[in-house]
């Protein structure tokens, strides 16, 4: 069963920025793209590396892995280029009274 988890306030993540959070054993990157919040797995699907340590391209909605340059769509988790073989998990988000919540199983 999935539950909503408070992970940050909207003031904690500036537009174009990411915050790394953990919910249980799930590692997430929570992104602010022009006031909309998105959450994806923080672990690259190519090799273990934290995506939140990579370069964010907010205009394109892309995160680039710092280790080998794989890119992912922040809005969907879709893998956009080699060497990432598969997408990363996307998590539903919502904002309630200034708190960002993520739906995590």
If you had to describe this structure to a student in words, what would you say it looks like?
This protein is mainly β. It has a single domain (3-104), classed as 3-layer Sandwich (Rieske Iron-sulfur Protein). It is built from no helices and ten strands. The strands form three sheets. A four-stranded antiparallel β-sheet has the order 2-3-4-8, with no helix packed on it. The chain has a three-stranded antiparallel β-sheet with strand order 1-10-9, with no helix packed on it. A three-stranded antiparallel β-sheet has the order 5-6-7, with no helix packed on it. Strand 9 (93-96) and strand 10 form a beta hairpin. The N and C termini lie close together (6 Å). The model has no long low-confidence stretch (mean pLDDT 97).
Provide a compact summary of the structure.
The chain is mainly β and 105 residues long.
DSSP E strands, number: 10
Termini gap:
6 Å
Largest sheet: 4 strands, antiparallel
Helices, by number, come to 0
CATH architecture: 3-layer Sandwich
> In the CATH scheme, what's the topology name?
Rieske Iron-sulfur Protein
CATH superfamily: Rieske [2Fe-2S] iron-sulphur domain
Q: Which strand order do you get reading across the main beta sheet?
A: 2-3-4-8
**Average of pLDDT:** 97
* Category from helices, strands and their pairing: mainly beta
């Amino acid at each position: 069963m999935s539950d909503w988890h408070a992970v940050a306030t909207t003031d904690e993540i500036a537009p174009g920025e990411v915050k790394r959070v953990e919910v249980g054993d799930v590692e997430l990157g929570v992104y602010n793209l022009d006031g909309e919040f998105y959450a994806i797995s923080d672990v690259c699907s190519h090799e273990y590396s934290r995506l939140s340590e990579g370069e964010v391209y907010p205009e394109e909605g892309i995160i680039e892995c710092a280790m080998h340059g794989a890119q992912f769509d922040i809005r969907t988790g879709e893998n956009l280029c080699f060497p990432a073989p598969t997408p990363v998990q996307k998590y539903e988000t919502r904002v309630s009274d200034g708190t960002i919540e993520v739906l995590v199983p």
